[in-house]
Amino acid sequence: MAFLSRKGSMGIFFAAALTALVVPAGLAQAAQCGNTAGGYSTWVQQFKKEAAARGVGRRALSALDNTRYATKTIYADRNQKSFKLSLDQFMKKRGGQAIINRGRSMKKKNAKLFASLERRYGVPAGPLIAIWGMETGFGKFLGNQNTLSAVATLAYDCRRSAYFTDHLYAALKLIDRGDLSPDAIGAAHGEIGQTQFLPLNVLRFGVDGDGNGHIDMARSRVDALASTANFLRGHGWQPGGGYQPGQVNFGALQGWNSASVYQQAIAIIGKEIDG
């Protein structure tokens, strides 16, 4: 799994929708970002005051106290190399042919599910299965980092503090409403679940596909796949249109991940699965 600028490109303008409450005038100085672990604990306490003023609940605020500066997240953020590979190298590194082979089987095994998703969102099985396979090996590898610590660390880190602060508020909202455990484990940048959504996009595009009252991106493949189809639709997917480079729906794949090799890999794998 790798992050680049995926699944969160609309995050900044949506931040206001997460927190309708206005931060009161006279709030203490904003939490100061940092580039080392040294200031993280102080930042957390400052940020908690801001979050409380924005209406974040006790459950989520308490969860912040249990976060730790995520050194592995910072390392991953500074060393994203796979997107510099050629398309052929990228496909081999990601196991493209293996995803195609298993993806065809997954399509047959879950035919009713994929048919219902296509009816509702207009997105065929191929690109959904390609994303599912490339992101987590069909739900097998969800990551090994504490989600809240990862997002909080990137919100604290000065490199992209504003961008990840939006995602941190989203993660806290998900915790408050019971859709994310404070102890949730995910990928290095805080991506959640079987198709690796950043927190803000769970709020924007998450779907309770199985109808149990919660959006569970990790344990419910129906929720994860329905949310992914909804994401693509929200990024301009047109029912019945092609999704290869130059076709109408390739732009929606570009919304999923800004790396050209990743976009092309989804299109290639999806086409092979869809036949």
Automatic annotation (TrEMBL):
Work out whether the entry's keyword set contains Signal. Answer: yes
Xref: InterPro entries: Lysozyme-like_dom_sf, MltB-like, SLT_2
Q: What does the record list as GO biological process?
A: peptidoglycan catabolic process
Q: Which N-terminal residues, if any, form the signal peptide?
A: 1-30
GO function terms (MF aspect): peptidoglycan lytic transglycosylase activity
- UniProt keyword Signal, yes or no: yes
In this chain the Transglycosylase SLT domain maps to 41-243
Membrane-spanning intervals of the chain = none
The record's annotation in Pfam families points to: SLT_2
Q: Which UniProt keywords apply?
A: Signal
The record's listing under PANTHER family reads: LYTIC MUREIN TRANSGLYCOSYLASE (PTHR30163:SF8), MEMBRANE-BOUND LYTIC MUREIN TRANSGLYCOSYLASE B (PTHR30163)
Name of the featured protein? Murein transglycosylase
**What is the protein's species of origin?**
Phyllobacterium phragmitis
